[in-house]
Amino acid sequence: MATPAPPISPPPFPKPITASPRKDTHPLSLLPKCNSLRELKQIQAYSIKTHLQNDISVLTKLINCCTVHPTTSSMEHAHHLFDQIPNPDIVLFNFMARGYARTTSPFRAFTLFTQTPNLVPDNYTFPSLLKACASSKAIQQGKQLHCLVVKHGQNCNIYVYPALINMYTECNDMDSAAQIFSRILEPCVVIYNALIAGYVRSSQPNKALSLFQELQARNVNPTYVTMLSVLSSCALLGALDMGKWVHKYVNRNGFDQHVKVSTALIDMYAKCGSLNDAVSVFESMTFRDTQAWSAMIVAYAIHGHGYRAISTFEEMKMAHVEPDAITFLGLLYACNHTGLVDEGWGYFFSMRDKYKISTGIKHYGCMVDMLGRAGRLYDAYKFINELPIKPTPILWRTLLAACNSYGNVKLGKLVIEKIFGLDDSHSGDYVIFSNMCARAGRRKDVNYIRKLMKDKGVEKVPGCSSIEVNNVVHEFFSGDGTRVEHRELHKTLDELVEELKLVGYVPDTSLVFHADMEDREKEATLRYHSEKLAIAFGLLNTPSGMTIRIVKNLRICGDCHSAAKFISSVFKRQIILRDVQRFHHFKDGKCSCGDYW
DNA sequence: TTAGGGTTAG
Length: 597
What we know:
DNA-binding; six-stranded mixed β-sheet; 31 helices; 6 strands; TPR-like_helical_dom_sf; mainly alpha; single chain
């Protein structure tokens, strides 16, 4: 008998989709993206509640979270979790290395690596470790890593090349960086970016720009990061024409949409002496972050518009953009150069008490400079002595400059002793102190300082001024007085100085370092100062009425400052001179700094 | 999960 066919049953109801309880309650599925401390706490609370705190994937997620935007305490937490894992894999290690590379204790990344020898590094390991060495300038460890990179056959790795180059550039070993670069047959844009940024960092803007030209010649497409370095190079050189060309290039290629590029443009225009262009870039921005506002505040400050810097800060507050330590540096800098001592104190205290931003050495430097410029030399001295940190030679040097301005040799002597106790290799200190003594008629002290400088083998940094004419940057050094190719320039300067004397210019030979020179010799030394050579070159090689723009590597000397004022009125030329500190706009016999510098 | 960047007292 045949077995009756089973009754046709209706198709079964689809099974209700019930996710496994494990999966449903798994914190990772609830928080797919975790990159904040708040989320970290949520995951942790959830994992404890659901007894998943020892789940390796939860721990991985937690360590990732701690190390994305790490702080010292979040790294301590990450390390604590890492120690709990019996056999951490390379992914976990990479998280840890990244975290340490991004905090102020990058050295620990290297230590952790040496303490976990069984790990096999992958593509992501060396870049983080190298970055850690770069940020702590640990070149010895960096070199050891370079050897390991070669050992693991990762020396041709596209991720490792930029990190290696960056490590060497941040450790100021540009030769090694350039050597690695030269061996790469087809460098990609990131590799170019690493070396170009290195040249900018080591103040070699010309090399950075020629590498940018090479990149273009080899048809490698630049990125916005490349443009940041290129704009920085223009800013360093003070090359406005070049900067304007880069601005057009940036617009043509759509990089101007990037807020960082616009910020770099503001900085470039400000440092190339064109505040108006900086303002128009700033005004054209649809979105402005803290850095963009800060760049504009700094731009006003270096051009001596203290009040505009302050009103920009007020606008920034109205726009609800939070200031940072650099914003306040710009504000203090603005107060400095405008003589706004009370406002400066106000900002100094409000950044600390109201905005909870910690004051750093650079803010202290601003305060010392501000008090010093206002002639409150002993207040500045007291301020330095009462600082919570050990004063650096730079802080004392700032006060020394103020002592020089006010001719206070007594305090100056005390200050130079403090400086020499910390660092006696800075030629500028000897020069300033010698100038002070010379002006006070203390010839013996001048001779002593000169001898000291000679005995210690300290060499004076030659003054260098540059001027850009028809896209070529011409450099002049103070010692160029004897160069044959400058004969015509000397003749022009000789005639110029005689003409200026007729309208009241008196060369200030007290500023000449060599006290034993004859007055005629001193005048000749002064006459061929680099900034005067550059101005004369500008007068000869640019059409009448055109603004002359000069960039100087040191502070402008008092005599050149006076001569430039006379030149601006006699020749009806505007002269914009950027020295190591700030801008001087000379027009109709006056300077924008109001002689307050 | 990885590389590359700007604003910074004297």
